[in-house]
């Protein structure tokens, strides 16, 4: 076992993290009583919608030592993902184009981040000897924003995402739960002030109050997490957003400091940053599987992909091409797809009058 002090080991870990491409590395403790209370209140209000997994693990989310026995510290990391040329506002302003959340344009971040975290853990092990640890992306019951805020990687914004003064919010978070004694970093102060740009910009008013999101209204939830029918009253508000939504990030003034990622894995693939709705709606199930191999989008499945595109086509300017594309899916095997296609065709017909 290495004779590193807590401070010297923390400095070394930060250095190794930078070598691995992380934008920042911080350290948090394992006590989260305030976060646990907020989580339970959020669940009690039903804001998690159909995300049953949010309730299934209960308080384990806020108690790292219950999730991974022996945990004494949490190493929190940031990995930037914003593509150098993302043209988000341009695509949103062109309703015939498909808007995909910028994080999903490239390779699935889960694999990239998990592999990088594993390398960091192995580098620590090479220095200090065997130690207990487990790496996490967002695929486990972990309050990653809370931990990152406690680790001084930023503060929780009014949109509930983490904000860093030097990097904005265009980044992924990951954690290493470990049994090393690493002193927590002092948390950063909140710098949102009186700004509420994120609340004002949200298309569906999902940010129901500062620091509180009703996921049932969030476009990211509707296009990714929701398995069934999208509420009809929310469909017109979705515009051309077919996978996720970045509006609150685009509105946040701190994001003017965000730097483009250096990770080639997060560069746009398959023309997803410029594709038209009609072009993507024409993909076969086989094309969907092949083109989106290694993409986070693939996890929603082909039917939900078509559902989301149908809604966007219903919101697009009326045109014979859009109507023909929708009509071609009118007899799709999935009732979910057929329902949204019919809604879109009715919208197209009304817009053509």
UniProtKB/TrEMBL annotation:
One of its GO terms (cellular component) is cytoplasm. Catalyzes the conversion of epoxyqueuosine (oQ) to queuosine (Q), which is a hypermodified base found in the wobble positions of tRNA(Asp), tRNA(Asn), tRNA(His) and tRNA(Tyr). Its cofactor is [4Fe-4S] cluster; cob(II)alamin. [4Fe-4S] cluster 1 binds at residues 192, 195, 198, 252. This is Epoxyqueuosine reductase. Pathway: tRNA modification; tRNA-queuosine biosynthesis. PROSITE patterns: 4FE4S_FER_1 (PS00198), 4FE4S_FER_2 (PS51379). Its EC number is 1.17.99.6. Binds 2 [4Fe-4S] clusters per monomer.
């Amino acid at each position: 076992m290495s004779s590193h002090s807590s401070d010297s080991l923390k400095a070394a870990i930060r250095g190794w993290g930078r070598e691995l491409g992380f934008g920042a590395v911080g350290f948090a403790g394992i006590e989260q009583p305030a976060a646990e209370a907020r989580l339970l209140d959020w669940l009690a209000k039903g804001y998690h919608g159909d995300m049953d997994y949010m309730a299934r693990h209960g308080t384990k989310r806020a108690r790292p030592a219950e999730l991974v026995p022996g945990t004494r510290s949490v190493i929190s990391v940031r990995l930037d993902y914003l593509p150098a040329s993302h043209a988000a506002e341009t695509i949103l302003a062109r309703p015939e184009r498909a808007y995909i959340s910028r994080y999903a344009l490239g390779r699935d971040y889960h694999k990239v981040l998990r592999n990088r975290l594993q390398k960091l853990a192995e580098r620590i092990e090479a220095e200090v000897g065997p130690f207990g640890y487990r790496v996490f992306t967002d695929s486990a019951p972990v309050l990653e924003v809370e931990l990152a805020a406690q680790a001084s990687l930023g503060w929780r914004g009014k949109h509930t995402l983490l904000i860093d003064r030097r990097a904005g919010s265009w980044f992924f978070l990951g954690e290493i739960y470990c049994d090393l004694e690493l002193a927590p970093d002092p948390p950063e102060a909140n710098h949102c002030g009186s700004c509420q740009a994120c609340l004002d910009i949200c298309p569906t008013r999902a940010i129901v109050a500062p620091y509180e999101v009703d996921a049932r209204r969030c476009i990211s939830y509707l296009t990714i997490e929701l398995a069934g029918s999208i509420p009809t009253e929310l469909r017109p508000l979705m515009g051309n957003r077919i996978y996720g939504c970045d509006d609150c990030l685009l509105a946040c003034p701190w994001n003017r400091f965000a730097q483009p990622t250096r990770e080639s894995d997060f560069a746009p693939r398959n023309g997803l940053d410029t594709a038209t709705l009609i072009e993507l709606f024409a993909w076969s199930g086989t094309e969907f599987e092949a083109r989106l191999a290694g993409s986070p989008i693939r996890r929603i499945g082909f039917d939900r992909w078509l559902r989301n595109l149908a809604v966007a086509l219903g919101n697009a300017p009326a045109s014979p091409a859009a109507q023909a594309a929708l009509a071609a899916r009118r007899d799709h095997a999935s009732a979910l797809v057929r329902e949204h296609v019919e809604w879109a065709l009715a919208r197209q017909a009304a817009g053509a009058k």
